[in-house]
Amino acid sequence: MDTSLETIGQQATAAAYVLGQADTAIKNQALLAMADALLTHQDAILQANANDMAKAAENQVRQVMLDRLLLTEARITAMADGLRQVATLPDPIGEVVAGWRTPNNLDVKQVRVPLGVIGMIYEARPNVTVDAAALTLKAGNAVVLRGGKEAIETNIALSDTLRQALVQVGLPKDSVQLLHDTSHETANALMQLTAYLDVLIPRGSANFIKMVLKTATVPVIETGAGNCHIYVAEDAAIPEAIAIIINAKTQRPSVCNAMEKLVVNQAIAPTLLPQLAQALAPYNVTLKGDAQACEILPDIELATEADWGTEYNDLILAIKVVSDIDAAITHINRYNTKHSEAIITNNYQYSQQFTKQIDAAVVYVNASTRFTDGFEFGFGAEIGISTQKLHARGPMGLPALTSTKYIVNGDGQIRA
Amino acid sequence: MDTSLETIGQQATAAAYVLGQADTAIKNQALLAMADALLTHQDAILQANANDMAKAAENQVRQVMLDRLLLTEARITAMADGLRQVATLPDPIGEVVAGWRTPNNLDVKQVRVPLGVIGMIYEARPNVTVDAAALTLKAGNAVVLRGGKEAIETNIALSDTLRQALVQVGLPKDSVQLLHDTSHETANALMQLTAYLDVLIPRGSANFIKMVLKTATVPVIETGAGNCHIYVAEDAAIPEAIAIIINAKTQRPSVCNAMEKLVVNQAIAPTLLPQLAQALAPYNVTLKGDAQACEILPDIELATEADWGTEYNDLILAIKVVSDIDAAITHINRYNTKHSEAIITNNYQYSQQFTKQIDAAVVYVNASTRFTDGFEFGFGAEIGISTQKLHARGPMGLPALTSTKYIVNGDGQIRA
């Protein structure tokens, strides 16, 4: 094993032990000190970011990546505000999740504890460095960060700043560690550092996450891709349906909870689709459709089989016409990524059937899929949106960064 | 990919969809029909087991393995009773785990749902076939079973019996599938069947589970090895300490919650150890110790570094003498498998410190480690004891075989 990773793992474990016992007040002090330090060291951080940006431009990195990489004063202020916000959240550690007395008089308590050491592996955005450090710290965990190589100078400047703030309040600086070596070999070794890492959380594109799942032996929380559908039943109120579709498709098309597919009942399609096409026109949404949709909207492109499984993350919407709700559910369960799905209906039975039979982290009746978000859900934070079924599903707040342990108080009980 | 595994995966997914919607009554009917069928088909099952036993004897399989493999009328009756017991347990599916209203009037409910398709991979014991089928079914999941090759005829007879019972009550027979091909290649392919399996639960020796963790790309729930310690503080009541140690070490030494190590404060060691050695004498426990323990008990063997990390699963106990509770906690956290640890003390501060600082699924004050068990905890069932921190920790009952989904009811909300 790589010696430096071995050292990083040992340091993280030692820091996690201290953080696991740290009281809420000191963790909050650390978060506020981190916020202050980001502003104090703003010039150095912006300089490091300018170096990364220059290198990226040299290497002809795509514009969308450059946008993600760029830091500004406003973005640093936003990061600092984020840290202060996390300081205001309730501390999940120590919560008694359940408790009972057994027939032989043992008092059993299930208590929330930190996970321990969390690995975060992500692509260009340097704000993940600060977000991840804040949330893992508040939940009493040490974190090992591995960001993209394009952002390495920025990430070093950010993590050094955060580590100095930790030392200021008397917490171990190794509560937050960043891999300075951004080689693939070291990333792969981190994904297999089972002796020290309790969990690995990848953030990035669908392909990136697939690669991590393939390589990692450390347990992974899969965050993710969203091929989100809205089904419009035959009884839907058309103005409401159109308002929700416009919102879900256009309000922020690049994110995972944006709508990608419209499934529409054949009884309402001839009325809905022309009105929808007209309403979407100002938003520059490219429409595609199956044969039936193309009959109603002759100007749109015929969707291919590949379309149904694709997350566009763009102003494209593919339309599938179905005979009934059963066909809608079958189609959605076949092609969705188990993220967020919605039905527009005023039919009670449909609403029940859809929410029960659709397999997804979040299922909506008469609302936009865009609400799948830790802040919208009221968690006050979000480490990602889990699309797996183990450990955490849907928007993940601080409790997703914790485990539990049982504490059993007895008075000499032995097993018969 | 292996075509037959592909087919098995598709069949399991289809069955899981039906089970996910099945009501409690029909799942319970299936469990009772399975219990009846085991008794009806007892002769065929015992014959299949006799064939496995004969082959195993030919292949000079060890006696302990033969004991695990053997079925008797009594063991089949016990399996049937187990199925009936699971039928009496509350159905976890549909439970509203949490629910709230957001500021914009969305009603959010977090509802318990099945995991989907569960892979179980295990060694010789054929009762796991029946236990796993019962628990996964009750929690609304389909299961794909892969038992040891020594038990293949027995497992086929058992799973065929269970599948017939499923058909009788109108549930899909593919709710329970057994891999008839027991090759390592097929087992490895099952561990990587991410397109169909939501989770993989291995049951078996520590080495077996390590191998599964290495090979699997499907998320694994690690069940586990137990290198369990009891720390006796300097103030402990000696008769209570001895009673707990005898119970934890000797009541069933082969299981994971049995005690493996005694850590004892140096102030009480000279009094405790001779009395303990005398009390343990009738139980044929081999004692080992560090240098200090060997000074007090000159007849015992000196423990090596390897001893401290070893789960003996046998009538062996290694003794470590420490200067204080901090040294005890450091030693235990270094060598334990994060399963079950206990302190014997009447000191309030020690009890608090030990339960907070020890990193383990279950931490006891003044009770035997042998209580770490789904039945003893009152779960009415146990699919295993998780020694990982993700998803489930400690004894796992039916809820460990579930996930949740969010159902969000709106009236036209769009995101601002």
UniProtKB/TrEMBL annotation, chains A, B:
Catalyzed chemical reaction(s): L-glutamate 5-semialdehyde + phosphate + NADP(+) = L-glutamyl 5-phosphate + NADPH + H(+)
Pathway participation: Amino-acid biosynthesis; L-proline biosynthesis; L-glutamate 5-semialdehyde from L-glutamate: step 2/2
Enzyme's top EC category: oxidoreductase
Keywords for this protein: Amino-acid biosynthesis, Cytoplasm, NADP, Oxidoreductase, Proline biosynthesis
Domain of life: Bacteria
Subcellular location per the Swiss-Prot or TrEMBL entry: Cytoplasm
Keyword Nucleotide-binding in annotation: no
Cytoplasm in keyword set: yes
Ranges where the Aldehyde dehydrogenase domain occurs: 10-285
Function according to Swiss-Prot or TrEMBL: Catalyzes the NADPH-dependent reduction of L-glutamate 5-phosphate into L-glutamate 5-semialdehyde and phosphate. The product spontaneously undergoes cyclization to form 1-pyrroline-5-carboxylate.
Gene from which the chain derives: proA
GO terms assigned for molecular function: glutamate-5-semialdehyde dehydrogenase activity
PANTHER family, sorted: DELTA-1-PYRROLINE-5-CARBOXYLATE SYNTHASE (PTHR11063:SF8), GLUTAMATE SEMIALDEHYDE DEHYDROGENASE (PTHR11063)
CDD domains documented for this protein: ALDH_F18-19_ProA-GPR
Family listed: Belongs to the gamma-glutamyl phosphate reductase family.
Listed EC numbers: 1.2.1.41
Pfam families in the record: Aldedh
Gene3D superfamilies in UniProt: Aldehyde Dehydrogenase, Chain A, domain 1, Aldehyde Dehydrogenase, Chain A, domain 2
SUPFAM superfamilies registered for this protein in UniProt: ALDH-like
Origin species: Agrilactobacillus yilanensis
Name under which the protein is recorded: Gamma-glutamyl phosphate reductase
